[in-house]
Amino acid sequence: MPEQPAVKCPSCQSDIRAADESGLVSVLQEHLYEEHVLEMPGERVRENVSAQLQILMATTPVPSAGPKS
Ligand SMILES: [Zn+2]
Question: 39 C-alpha vs ligand 1 centroid, how far in Å?
């Protein structure tokens, strides 16, 4: 079972989860508005989400690795 993609809220670092990238964009945008009263343009949210997903996909999980940064 593939893991659902998840990104972090840029303001509070909460996990934002949705079925796919466009879902993440709308969930994050809604979260920003409801939790932080922050209206971020859809374009900016989309850039943030896709940047985070690229980092996730570029990172191969290493089970025995210690905490980094
Ligand atoms: Zn937040």
Answer: 12
> Alpha-carbon distance 51 to 62, whole Å?
21
pLDDT tens digits, one per residue of 5-22: 899 999 999 999 999 999
20 Cβ contact partners less than 8 Å away, ≥ 6 residues apart: 5
Model pTM score: 0.78
Ligand 1 midpoint to CA 30 (Å) = 10
- CA distances (Å), 41 to each of 3, 11, 35, 58, in order? 27, 15, 16, 26
